[in-house]
Amino acid sequence: MKPVTLKQIAGQLNISVSTVSKALKNYPDVSKETKLKVKELAKVLNYQPNAFAVNLRRKESRTIGLIIPEIVHHFFSTIIKGIVNQAEKEGYLVIILQSNESYELEKKQINLLLNQHVDGIIISLANNSTNFDHLNQVVLSKKPLVMFDKIAKLVNCSKVIINDRKAAYTATQHLIDAGCKRIAHFRGSLLPLNSIDRFLGYRKALLDNGLPYDPALVYISECDDTSFEEGKMNTRKLLEDHDDVDGIFISTDLVAIGALTECNKLGVKVPDDIKIIGFSNWFMSKVVSPALSTIDQPGYLMGEMAFKQLYKEITMQKNKESYYPEIIELETKLIVRESTAS
Amino acid sequence: MKPVTLKQIAGQLNISVSTVSKALKNYPDVSKETKLKVKELAKVLNYQPNAFAVNLRRKESRTIGLIIPEIVHHFFSTIIKGIVNQAEKEGYLVIILQSNESYELEKKQINLLLNQHVDGIIISLANNSTNFDHLNQVVLSKKPLVMFDKIAKLVNCSKVIINDRKAAYTATQHLIDAGCKRIAHFRGSLLPLNSIDRFLGYRKALLDNGLPYDPALVYISECDDTSFEEGKMNTRKLLEDHDDVDGIFISTDLVAIGALTECNKLGVKVPDDIKIIGFSNWFMSKVVSPALSTIDQPGYLMGEMAFKQLYKEITMQKNKESYYPEIIELETKLIVRESTAS
DNA sequence: CTGAAAGCGCTTACAG
DNA sequence: CTGAAAGCGCTTACAG
Q: Which residues are in the HTH lacI-type domain (chains A, B) (predicted)?
């Protein structure tokens, strides 16, 4: 019942623990005979090295930590999948933690991971994280750190991102090309960098096309979680206050689907009366009616790349090579569906 | 830069490592003075106990393993969230692994978790797992194990489930009450217990209501992942082969939404020509059009309960109390929306 | 009240 | 080719 140890194997074979250890790891200075005996018995007893002890010796855990604002979220779950799959390929395990968009929790979780001695940390920031001491502390302690999607420019670590500004520009330009003249924007939370960048892309597209930028058409979400309900509410307000609007660029698909649903309910025709484009390409977007145009954000790939970068840094660190943070920018793609047909 | 150890604290204060250790843990046999000094210095140096060493000594890791068939899945991600949140409350960390519906992978992952010495394992089975030796091995080694949703009756461990048969009966009865006379069933994969149970509930409802059971109306999925595309394909086949069908009970919302989409495309009116009910209450179901009737399956609660049960068993085990596996059955709820309106 | 000692299970530099 | 020894960082029973 008790797990088998090297000591037991050594005892049964009447040899030393060190020899058993070396035999199992194919050290060249152990006789073939001994190796054979040891390996056979290890198999019979189903010997599994005690990870705690190995970790303590090697000072590595082959475990990484992942902090995500919200697990139940199509984009994030795709990323989790990418990270977990890629990690498994290299024999790494992933501890997952959810910050719930809370800075306090995020900070606590970083500390938790740090004293669990994970070999590295991957994180996407909570919306209200504006102090980054906890992350700088990770960088300072030379523990590899990779941020993705919701990043902080001021933290000196590798980042896997998309070009939010450019993607938002493309989305807005698409609305303009489809004939929209007065375009609103639901930007989600105020703080996160990608909300800001998407907003800037939207505004730039308007100006580049000679359309006026009207701040009254930009809706900021009050609560921290950008939700379906918010999309419905904002749409109702928008339609009341600005009945001349003919297009909306919404920075999350979920909110965009809320908007669609509200339009359907109020009898406002999408795309005839108003065109809507979302952001992220959640699975849902192609099954709603009318199907939602959006910007595809490569979640799985983002997860894969985040782990690959982290792994590279962990390995270089172990070999005492020096490395510099890298910014990895992934391509997005405009997905045209019914909601912006002209 | 190097993590601070007890030894360093002891060195600086000129006292022994044991005293430092005891002081930090408030052992009653250490003087107030010493405690104060030690704690102060520990704080200044930002001392964090080395988890490896603590684990090795205590033979516990305060970490559990979670194996899930597929991460990108609304129901499962809700469960992950429930488990992770509940675990955090008790100071436990969760290692997440995805079996990808593969028995081979699942087996490997169990072994991985076992020699990581997690304190317990929570698992939902891969569809093609029919051999349960790897799980029985966990039970035999007295490592707490909890299964949820996709379980194996033959494994002697605690389980958190819903009553699939009853829920399927309710769904089918609802179609009958809405006037359906000839009801098809998309049952998903052949093997998993919940597919079987849902099928049995469907059949029983028909028979109890004096409707004939026609095996030709039951569609089994060929591939292992029950998908949107499958819903579309099956629906096309069904409409060609059986144009008298007026209701479908589909064992997953995702497939049901595929069916809805295909009906919309083919001009078949839901709910007028044909009524559709799904299973699981994915978020998507309320935003498609027509909104999908379904059975609500309490994912978050299921995750919470799974962890709570595991935690109970871990604790009892530690205290050398004996415990017996429990079956925890959670309530489901019929959600009536437009797709079955009469 | 304090500390020396043993030990958790492993790895590895060193001696023989 | 083999093994004794030291050590990773901690905890705890025991002696003083």
A: 4-58
Partners of residue A94 in chain B, C-beta under 8 Å:
95-96
At B38-80, the pLDDT tens digits run: 888 888 888 888 888 988 888 888 999 999 999 999 999 999 9
Query: Is residue A104 one of the residues assigned to a domain?
Result: yes
Same domain for B188 and B258, yes or no, is: yes
Work out if A342's Cβ lies within 7 angstroms of strand C: no
- Min Cα separation A56/chain B (Å): 5
- Cβ neighbours, 10 Å, residue B137: 16
Q: Is A84 on the interface with B (CB under 8 A)?
A: yes
What do you get for the CA distance between the two ends of chain A, in Å? 70
From B212's Cα to the closest Cα of chain A, the distance in A is: 33
Going from the C-alpha of B187 to that of each of B7, B135, B214, B248, the distances in angstroms are: 62, 26, 14, 10
* A160-185 per-position pLDDT tens digit: 999 999 999 999 999 999 999 999 99
Q: Cβ contact (<8 Å) for A84 and B94?
A: no
Which among A166, A155, A161 is positioned nearest to A305, based on CA atoms? A161
Contact residues on chain A for B258, CB-CB shorter than 8 A: 287
* pLDDT for res B226: 65
In this complex, the residue of B93, B116, B260 whose CB is nearest that of residue A51 is: B116
pLDDT one-digit tens code per residue, A130-151: 899 999 989 988 899 999 999 9
How many CB atoms sit inside 10 A of residue B269's CB? 11
Is A11 among the domain residues?
A: yes
